[in-house]
Design a protein that fits this description.
The protein has about 200 residues and is an all-beta fold. Helix content is about 0%, strand content about 50%. It has 2 domains: about 5-120, Immunoglobulins (Immunoglobulin-like, Sandwich); about 125-195, Immunoglobulins (Immunoglobulin-like, Sandwich). A hairpin with a 2-residue loop joins strand 3 (about 30-40) and strand 4 (about 45-55).
Length: about 200
């Protein structure tokens, strides 16, 4: 089909994360993109977020300023990137493109995607070692990295098991690094991931 917009019906975004709402087409000879707009419908009112024409890009809704963008210099890609997703960003997003043909007629196409913003709890973290095998000579350097997924921001804490089943808090941050290992660094280490 000539100049059809492709997108997706539904999309789930993670609160505080970012998402790209796809809207693409195959550029065709003889058709020039005149305008591109993105609008959002929520609570049965529709507002235009983004407008692109010969004069450039315009973000019309202040609550999206600094958080939305559309690829530049990428013909056929009209996708909308939204960063720092907020719960009220959930809604129906419509991408509309108008082309002018060589005989000066206008063609309009649009595609609508339902976006749902969800809060995702931090997953059980995994620990990645700087190198395979964690039996290392004294004086070597090594590191452990804690990784979890979920709604950002995710904070990390490292513990080391201590006598009598207790744990000693070592540091906060995803990486635990030793510039030069000592024999006393042998032990069992735990990491904890947490988000809001």
């Amino acid at each position: 089909a000539l100049l059809d917009l492709s997108g997706v019906h539904q999309l789930t975004g993670t609160w505080m994360g970012s998402t790209t709402i796809p809207c693409t087409y195959v550029p065709s000879e003889g058709f020039t993109q005149q305008t591109l707009s993105w609008s959002v419908e929520r609570d049965s009112s529709t507002s235009t977020i983004f407008w692109r024409d010969d004069s450039g890009d315009h973000i019309l809704l202040s609550k999206y300023r600094g958080r939305v963008s559309v690829p530049k210099n990428s013909p056929g890609d009209a996708s909308l990137l939204i960063e720092n997703l907020e719960m009220p960003d959930s809604g129906h997003y419509t991408c509309q493109v108008i082309w002018r043909s060589t005989d000066d007629s206008l063609i309009t196409r649009e595609v609508t995607t339902t976006v749902k913003v969800v809060k995702v709890a931090a997953t059980k973290p995994i620990i990645r070692a700087g190198e395979p095998g964690l039996t290392l000579p004294a004086g070597a350097s090594t590191s452990l990295t804690c990784e979890a997924s979920g709604s950002p921001p995710i904070s990390y804490r490292w513990f080391r098991s201590a006598p009598a089943g207790t744990a000693e808090l070592l540091s906060s941050g995803a990486e635990l690094a030793w510039p030069s290992l000592r024999p006393s660094d042998s032990g069992t280490y735990f990491c904890e991931a947490q988000n809001r």
